[in-house]
Amino acid sequence: MRGDVFAMKCPSRTVMKHMTSTWGVLTLIALKSGTLRFSELRRKVNGVSERMLTQTLQQLEGDRLLTRRSYPVVPPHVEYTLTDLGQEAAAHVECLANWVEDHMPQLAAMPEQA
């Protein structure tokens, strides 16, 4: 059954919120090229706090957009990989991010609205 993002209680709204948050978009795009460890991902998604990245990863994992693999070693070794759905979602949000980057001159020139 298809979701309806205009319906207030539709779970698709929650998934969309996770995917389109700043950190969700950047995390999906960062993982598009392949598996990354937590520390590699944090460096790639410049400016994200450890807590916020952890929360974002948990949400995207719960939405079945990525998988988490933990290795029983010291120090802990955890890797994140996009699922097939995550790869598809990453392609879409990457288009949005590219559009924003391409149009920054026009967007930056717009007067701020209150």
| SS content category | alpha+beta
- Portion of residues in helices? 55-70%
- Separation, N- and C-terminal Cα atoms: 39 Å
Q: Please report the number of helical segments.
A: 6
Rg, Cα atoms, Å: 16 Å
String of helices and strands = HHEHHEEHH
Percentage of residues in DSSP E strands: 5-15%
Count of extended strands: 3
Stretches where pLDDT falls below 50 for ≥5 residues? Answer: none
Please give the order of strands in the largest beta sheet.
1-3-2
**Morphology call:** globular
Characterize this entry briefly.
By secondary structure, this protein is an alpha+beta fold. Helices cover 56% and strands 12% of the residues.
Keywords:
3-stranded antiparallel beta sheet; 6 helices; alpha+beta; 114 residues; single chain; 12% strand
Explained architecture:
- This protein is α+β, with helices and mostly antiparallel strands.
- 56% of the residues lie in helices and 12% in strands.
- It has a three-stranded antiparallel beta sheet with strand order 1-3-2.
- Strand 2 and strand 3 (77-82) form a beta hairpin.
- Helix 2 (22-31) crosses helix 5.
- The longest helix is centred in the C-terminal third of the chain and has 19 residues, at 84-102.
- The chain is globular.
- The N and C termini lie far apart (39 Å).
